[in-house]
Specification:
- There is one protein chain.
- The protein is mainly α.
- It contains 8 helices and no strands.
- Among the domains are: about 5-55, no CATH class; about 125-165.
- It has helices spanning about 5-10, 10-15, 20-35, 35-55, 65-75, 80-115, 125-135, 140-165.
Length: about 170
């Protein structure tokens, strides 16, 4: 059947329950149609049962003692080997601390040189209009400017009254 080559590599993982859900579903769909792969699954399951039921072989006599004696010899032959991880830890810590100090210094040095925030100019409109009215009363066509500014001032007063009345 087509697709057996793709599924063959997944059969052992299927038997062990190690496939992700999507792959597991693909294998199960293939197994419903392929007798050859179902037979392979049966063989793999039988092999798994046999391996699980077989006890591990005993260790050769004296193996544990030989391992321990070699470890003692290695430890005594290289006393610096135990200190190396400690040194490596110190070097990593020192490098991290240095990097943090450089970053902090860069931030502190860069802050005074950053441009100041541009403040928005606050114009007291009421005082500005009053001053304009006083300055333009004596000029020709002052009545036009007075009317225009007075109507604008009235509009502002109404807007302020509406905003004060709103909850």
């Amino acid at each position: 059947m087509r697709g057996c080559h793709e599924i063959q590599d997944r059969l052992s993982g299927y038997v062990d329950g190690a496939l992700p859900p999507g792959e597991r579903a693909a294998v199960e769909a293939h197994l419903r149609e392929c007798e050859t792969c179902r037979a392979t699954i049966a063989d793999l399951e039988a092999l798994k049962r046999l391996l699980v039921s077989t006890p591990p072989p005993p260790l050769p006599p004296g193996l544990s003692a030989r391992i321990h004696s070699r470890l003692r010899v290695q430890r005594s032959a290289s006393p610096g080997a135990r200190r190396a991880p400690r040194r490596a830890w110190f070097v990593r810590r020192a490098a991290s601390a240095t990097a943090a100090a450089v970053l902090l210094a860069a931030l502190l040095i860069g802050l005074p040189w950053s441009p100041p925030e541009q403040a928005q100019a606050v114009v007291p409109l009421d005082a500005y209009f009053q001053e304009h009215l006083r300055a333009t009363r004596a000029l020709p066509l002052a009545d036009v400017s007075v009317l225009t500014l007075s109507s604008f001032q009235a509009t502002l007063a109404l807007e302020n009254a509406d905003s004060d009345a709103s909850p």
